Amino acid sequence: MSTHSPGTDPRAPFGARLRHAMDTRGPLCVGIDPHPSLLADWGLDDDVEGLRNFTHTVVDALADRVAVLKPQSAFFERFGSAGVAVLEAAVARAREAGALVLMDAKRGDIGSTMAAYADAYLRADAPLHADAVTLSPFLGFGSLRPALDAARESGSGVFVLALTSNPEGADVQRARGADGRTVAQAVLDRLAAENEGAEPLGSFGAVVGATLAEADADLGINGPLLAPGIGAQGATAGDLRRVFGSAAGNVLPSVSRGVLRHGPDPEALRKAARIEAEQLAEAIG
């Protein structure tokens, strides 16, 4: 019999582990976004060595104290296989230190290709296995079935794009189908069905931007709501209650530059993350 609590047992569903992490470490996801300007701000070269130094500094400073680390896969992929090797090491390093890892890859495809993406990120023995991955549903929600099934089988999670923080997203996400629902609401409803009966929190989340003027959607999916847009994109902790309403308790706010700009000093990164987590917890209540 396992001696772990549901929140810390690595075999527990992602939703249970995330609920425990947010309750004990604070509701904060720190993005690992090593774009060229940030590497320069840290005094690092825009090469694999700079990428490695940046990534390892962030992981070593924060993985034992923040709920979630979210590496943006594109910033590693642009360096080819050497960059992906840095990403693999960072994922393993972060999970070993206790952080949940959300791979921000926004994958979306059909059939065997979607199944291959699921193998890459959600299979327990995969080199890039993360606790959760972001997915795009805009080839039809049903196209995500291989990833949803793989996540359920491995105890991992997914965050599906629903109402994103970029203004261009509204063209698709606010469009209405034949039944009168917006595309975003149809996605949210499908996620709610996936999470039905899950306790204390479902493992199938949605991405809903904190920058929205209003959600204008039912966010009660019994799952986590990843909220990008805080900081550089203009949203603040105070916007969370306005956008998410009664679902605010399940929100996982994502902050990148607001924390990362305090590097490369590890203690400054830790202090920035602690302040962000405290402010977000207070705002969410």
From TrEMBL:
It catalyses: orotidine 5'-phosphate + H(+) = UMP + CO2. It is an enzyme of class 4 (lyase). SMART domains: OMPdecase. One of its GO terms (molecular function) is orotidine-5'-phosphate decarboxylase activity. Pathway: Pyrimidine metabolism; UMP biosynthesis via de novo pathway; UMP from orotate: step 2/2. The active site is at residue 106. It comes from the Bacteria. Its EC number is 4.1.1.23. Keywords: Decarboxylase, Lyase, Pyrimidine biosynthesis. CDD domains: OMP_decarboxylase_like (cd04725). Residues 27-272 form the Orotidine 5'-phosphate decarboxylase domain. Coiled coil: none annotated. GO terms for biological process: 'de novo' pyrimidine nucleobase biosynthetic process; 'de novo' UMP biosynthetic process. Belongs to the OMP decarboxylase family. Type 2 subfamily. This is Orotidine 5'-phosphate decarboxylase. It comes from Streptomyces armeniacus.
